[in-house]
Amino acid sequence: MVFRGVQQAVKRLSDFLNVAATYVTFLLIVGMIAVITLQVIMRVFFTAGSWTEELARYLLVWSSFTAATIGFKRKAHIAVTFVVSALPRRVAAIVRAAAYVLAIVFFVVGIVYGVRLSSYQIFQVSPALGLPMRYVYLVIPASCAVGTVHVLCHLLEEMGSYAEGKR
Asked: What is the mean pLDDT of residues 99-109?
């Protein structure tokens, strides 16, 4: 009973974070398109500011990381499934669970080192925008934290479906 409650809570959090990441990614991409369009117009008719190129680059980085979390939620990243499909049911479930655990370890390392990297950039500012670089680098631990929640949700689903005999 407790496991089911934890599983449902993690799933709700994962679903909420996925919806938020979808909207954020959409806004980042729309912003990037607007900035690039402005840069082209400014370059043709006036003098293009260097800030547009820098802002477009940072928006691309943030949208890439937030979109990657959406891919983890949807299980849309590349995977070698034919090997796992050929394994017996119990072994396949163990292999999938081990892959999820390894992904969580990867994300936790990303969180730790991403926070460390962001803290190293506390006094550095971007050349054109004057934006503190820690905000640019904060996407690493933020996206790793969201990815951890998504992969934990998948791991709990895997464990729950195996316990119920569905896998």
From this structure: 97
Identify whether the C-beta of residue 130 lies closer than 8 Å to the C-beta of residue 55: no
pTM, entire model: 0.90
Alpha-carbon span 114 to 157, nearest angstrom = 28
* Dmax (CA) of the chain: 66
Q: What are phi and psi of 88, to 5 degrees?
A: -60, 155
What letter represents residue 70's amino acid? I
In the block, residue with structure tokens 């599983």: 7
Question: Rounded to whole angstroms, how far apart are CA atoms 118 and 59?
Answer: 17
Average pLDDT, the chain: 92
- Angle ∠(1,164,72) on CA atoms, nearest 5: 90
